[in-house]
Design a protein that fits this description.
By secondary structure, the protein is mainly alpha-helical. Helices cover 55% and strands 7% of the residues. The strands form two sheets. A three-stranded parallel sheet has the order 1-2-3. A two-stranded parallel sheet has the order 4-5. The longest helix has 30 residues. The mean pLDDT is 95. Bound molecules: adenosine-5'-tetraphosphate.
Length: 330
């Protein structure tokens, strides 16, 4: 039995990249008899400015999205990061092991800090250490993530090994699990950038809550190129991204899609893609909306998840405090 863990920031309405990169893999791993933990990393979300009212709504929305996508709270411990204070406690201890140079190399930090000068929060810089704490606290074996988070999971591995070497065997060294297709869906308005829920333009992403009209508008406006054929090629990231999305939704291979659109142009392809997306999103949205109508039901699930996670985290921190020498009784 493996312990599997993943998390998402409630920093906006989740998009199809989050769904295919992290939620769907977690749902499929749930059925294999593993021990799963899934949570909303609200303390990661506040590394950039958040409106408190919207943050509260986004936490509940993310919980509803997981459940609507097939997460079973009996099989998966579903909770909110801030409810288990051991995450931030362990992050502090790991902060004292990590080196400045390691964090300065993190590409997500560099991307997010770009152009923001001195106004970037220390939290954004330190984000990968809190993520390492999230993972190591639960003796996690596997972390299903999108491609963008691979470097952060590698840092968690390095910190686990460093801690174990210095203080004795304490942490399991986790492995990232990255799917072959869909691990990095690109922005619709710029296929050289990744799809991101906190992007300034809504044209960047396909939200899980977009309605039929919005989906069609965004897909029609999605950046492609002037070649006009439905073919995968490294030099054609725009159409490649759209083929990947269609492939994820229809479970057809990119090759089958290329064959089906032989001799057809972007107009037909984009109309079909928008239709398939709407057919995929509409039932998911109905389930999410039904769950959101019962906030006390959601809170009950999150309370239960928080106490289960807390019990595991408390046990781990007793060992960690002992190992580093801050516990005075033996
Ligand atoms: N474009 C993407 N394609 C595939 N997977 C993706 N993920 C994110 N973007 C894509 C995966 O979704 C999970 C949750 O991500 P996160 O909420 O922790 O933050 P992120 O990676 O920074 O994602 P966003 O959407 O870009 O959020 P913001 O804009 O708030 O930073 C992770 O497993 C991630 O890999």
């Amino acid at each position: 039995m493996s312990r599997i863990l993943t998390a998402l920031q409630p920093s906006g309405i989740l998009h199809i990249g989050n769904y295919f990169g992290a939620i769907e893999p977690m749902v499929s791993l749930q059925s294999a008899g593993n021990q799963n933990l899934l949570f909303m990393v609200d303390y990661h979300a506040i590394t950039v400015e958040q409106d408190p009212h919207t943050l509260r709504q986004n936490i509940l929305f993310a919980a509803a999205t997981y459940l609507a996508s097939g997460i079973d709270p009996e099989k998966t411990i579903l909770f909110q990061q801030s409810r288990v204070s051991e995450h931030t406690e362990l992050a502090w201890i790991l902060n004292c092991l990590v080196r400045m140079g390691e964090l300065e190399r993190m590409t997500q930090y560099k991307d997010k800090a770009l152009g923001k000068g001195q106004s970037v929060s220390v939290g954004l810089f330190d984000y990968p250490v809190l993520m390492a704490a999230d993972i190591l606290l639960y003796d996690t074996n596997i972390v299903p993530v999108g491609e963008d988070q691979k470097q952060h999971v590698e840092l968690a591995r390095d910190l686990a090994e460093r801690f174990n070497k210095k203080f004795g065997e304490t942490f399991v060294v986790p492995k990232p699990q990255i799917r072959k297709e869909g691990a990095r869906l690109m922005a619709l308005d710029d296929p050289h950038k990744k799809m991101s829920k906190s992007a300034t333009s809504e044209k960047n992403y396909l939200s899980l809550m977009d309605d039929e009209k919005t989906v069609l508008k965004k897909i029609k406006a999605a950046v492609t190129d002037s070649e006009g054929t439905i073919r995968l090629s490294p030099s054609r990231p725009g159409i490649g991204n759209l083929i990947t999305i269609l492939s994820l939704i229809t479970k057809k291979t990119p090759k089958e899609i290329e064959n089906a659109y032989e001799g057809k142009g972007y107009g037909d392809f984009k109309t079909d893609l928008a239709r398939e997306l709407t057919a995929f999103l509409t039932p998911l949205q109905s389930k999410i909306n039904a769950l959101l109508k019962d906030p006390s039901g959601l809170l009950k699930i999150l309370d239960n998840g928080a106490s289960r996670a807390k019990a595991m985290a408390e046990k781990k921190m007793i060992d960690v405090r002992q190992k580093i020498g801050v516990t005075l009784s033996s």
